[in-house]
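Support request, please re-run this one:
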Amino acid sequence: MIQNFTIYTLIYLITALVSFFVAVIAWQRRRVKGGKEITLLMIASGFGSFALIFESIAAIPSEKILWSTIEFAGGIAIPVLFLLFVFRFTDREKFLSKYHIISYFIIPFITFCFILTNSNHNLFWSGFSKISQQTNLMEYYHGVVFWIGYVAYSYLLLIISSLSIFCFLIKHKRSFRYQGVMIFTAAILPWSASILYLSDINISPGFDMTPASITLSGILIISSIYYNRFLDLAPIARDTLFETLSDGIMAIDNRKRILDINNTARICLGISGKSMTGIDARVSGATNVSLLNAVLNEESISEVEVEDNSDVRTFRIIKQQIKDQTGCHLVVIRDVSDYISQQKELITAKERAEESDRLKSAFLANMSHEIRTPMSGILGFTALLQELDISGDEQQEYIRIIEKSGQRMLCTINDIITLASLETGHIKAVVEEVNIISIIDPVIESFNPLAKEKGLEIVFEKGFCDNQSIIFTDKEKVGIILSNLIKNAIKFTTQGRITVKCIRTNTGIDISVKDTGIGIPPEKRELIFERFRQGSESVSRSYEGAGLGLSISKAYTEILGGKILLESEQDKGSTFYVTIPDKKS
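Re-run finished. Output below.
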C-alpha cells in the first residue's frame, strides 16, 4: 500500500494527540458543570483528526473516501456536543432531557446514513477532484445533503450556542466577563475554519482546518477550567441561588407591592402566578391568607400556624428593613414545623428518659427485695435445720419453706434471663404440632395447689371438640404465656375463682383468663405490659414479683404472631385475651 506523508499529516497527528490530551484533562474534571460534555467533544474531535491522518497519507481516492467517511462519524457529532456543553454551562437544563438530546442527534444520524450510502446517490459528495501531486490532498465536491444535513444544521447549532454564550456574557458581565469571552471565542473558531474550508481562500485545496480549530477551542475551555476555574464557577448566578433557597424570600415596598419573590415563597403563600413584580401583595391571589397577613403586618418577627390537609404547619416570619429603601422590607418565610416537632420529640424523649431512670431505680430496689427476701428465708431456715432439737414435722416445714423460697428466686432469675434474651432478639418460635389441651391441663394442674391455698378455684371451659385441639405453634411459649396469666390472676385474687376458657377459630386458638380480683385502674391498663411495671411499684406493696410476667407474655404472643388484650373493672376483676395463630402452612 502506497502512503505519502506530508506536512498536513503532521498537523492532523498533532491535532489528534492534543484533542485526546485535552479529553483526559477534562475527564479529570468531569464532576464540574460541562466537564463530561467537553470530554466527549474532545474525543469526537480527536477521533476525526485521527481518521484524517490516514486520509492525508492515502494514495488512492477510494481509501481517502473511506477515511473521510470515518472522520465524519466524529465530525457530525461535534456541533451537537458543543451545544450540549453550552446548555449545561448556561444552566439551560430544560433543553437537556433525554428526549431533547436524542432529537439533536436525529439529523446527524440521517446525514451519516447518506454518507455511508453516497456511492448509490451522490447526495453528500457529488464528486471528487484528482489527488494533488504536491499536497496529496483531494477536493470533495458537495451535494445537497452536505449543505443541508451537515453545513446548515451545524451552523444552526453554532448560532444557537454562540447566542446562548453571548446572552450569558451580557447577563453576567461583571462576574464572568473573562470566562465568557474565552468560550465565545471558542465558539467562533470552528465557524472561521469551516468558512475557510468551503471558500476559495483556503490555505490549500482539500485541507480542512476545522478539527484543529475545534482542538484550539478545547484548549481555551480547558485553560479556563484550570486557570480561571471556569466550570467550577459557572453559573452560580443570583437566580439559581435565589430559587433554590429552602426559605421563602420576598421584598415588599411601602405600598405592599411585591418587588421580588422566589418560588418557595410563592408555594408557601399559595400564589400560582410567576410574574408578581409590581403587584400588590393583597391582590396577588394568595390562598394562604393567614400567612399573607403575617407577612404584611408591622411585626419584625412573628409566627403563624397554618392548617394543611389536616396537618398543622408553623411558619416564622422575619422582616428586615432594606438599606437606602425607605419603607421596603426583605421578608423571610421559614417553615419551622420540623424544628418545633423535633423540640417536642426531645421533650418527650427527655420525659421518657426520666421515667426510664425512675423505673430503673424502682426495678433495682424491687430486684433487691425479690432476691433478698427468699434468700433470707433460705439462709434463716437452713440455720434452723442445724438445730439438734427440732422435730421431724418442723424439719419438713423448714424444708418446704426453703424450697418455696428457692423456687421464687429461681423464677425471678429465669424472668430476667428471658427478658435479656428478648432484648437481644435471640428468641424465635419453634413451631410444631401440639394438642392445645396437653398444654392447658398441666399448667392448670400445677397451679391448683397454690389456688387452693388462697381458697380459689381454677375452672377450665373448653369451647371445641377433641378433634379440633391440634394446632401448629410453639408449645413452650404458649405454656409460659398461660402460666404467667394464671399466676398473675391468683396473685391479685383473694376470693372467687379463675376461669380459663379456650375456643377454636378459623385462624387458630383464643384463650382467655378471667379472675375476680382487684382489677386494674384505667390509667394502669396500658402500662402493665411494659417491663418492670406493676399495679404498684413500691417495695412495700402487698404482692411479690418482679413485674416481668405480663411483659414476657406479650413479647411471646407477638413472636407467635398473636395479640394479647385486657378488659378490667376495678374491684371486680380482669380478663386477659390471647390469640394464638395456627402456623400450619
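The first strand starts at residue 125 and ends at 128. Residues 340-425 form a domain with the Helix Hairpins fold (CATH 1.10.287.130).
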